[in-house]
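To the wet lab folks,

You asked to see what we're planning to order before we commit. Fair enough. Below is the target structure as tokens, and below that is the sequence we designed to fit it. If anything looks off to you, flag it before the synthesis order goes out.
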């Protein structure tokens, strides 16, 4: 478990439908919350990346919903970088119930790195400090 970053979330009322079940779109928001926290834990948050002229848009999202989550429950989003090659990365998520330890959702997001003009950026070449951060991320399975 030491190769995964953890982000805790308590389900809010506004995230649920009339039955108290979390709406499926909120899992994607939780992925983003966890990814943002993950980046900050690595020492280089999105705010710093953007100050340096780098953006990292989402290219695709996948979510496999396994069990419902209800209002008032707490979950932990386990986050890790699955792949990174200096230009693109894939982040993996697992949403786990804090009480039962059961997995409620698994997913991933794919990203690229662009400059402020929307052109692709090679972190390895142009921002070696960011590149090293990703290469050394806990649990990262590197593609060369």
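Sequence we intend to order:
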């Amino acid at each position: 478990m030491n190769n995964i970053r953890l982000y805790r979330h308590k389900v809010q009322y506004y995230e649920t439908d009339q039955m108290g079940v979390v709406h499926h779109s909120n899992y994607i928001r939780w992925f983003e919350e966890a990814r943002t926290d993950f980046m900050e834990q690595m020492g280089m948050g999105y705010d710093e990346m953007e100050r340096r002229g780098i953006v990292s848009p989402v290219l695709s999202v996948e979510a496999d919903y396994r069990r419902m989550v209800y209002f008032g429950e707490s979950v932990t989003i386990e986050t890790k970088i699955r792949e990174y090659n200096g230009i693109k990365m894939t982040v993996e998520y697992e949403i786990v119930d804090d009480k039962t330890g059961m997995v409620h959702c698994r997913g991933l997001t794919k990203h690229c790195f662009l400059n402020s003009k929307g052109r692709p950026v090679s972190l390895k070449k142009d921002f070696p400090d960011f590149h090293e951060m990703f290469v050394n991320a806990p649990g990262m399975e590197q593609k060369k």
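Structural context that might help your review: The beta strands are 5-10, 54-55, 58-65, 74-84, 88-97, 103-112, 114-115. The helical segments are 25-42, 46-51, 123-126, 128-135.

Thanks,
Computational group
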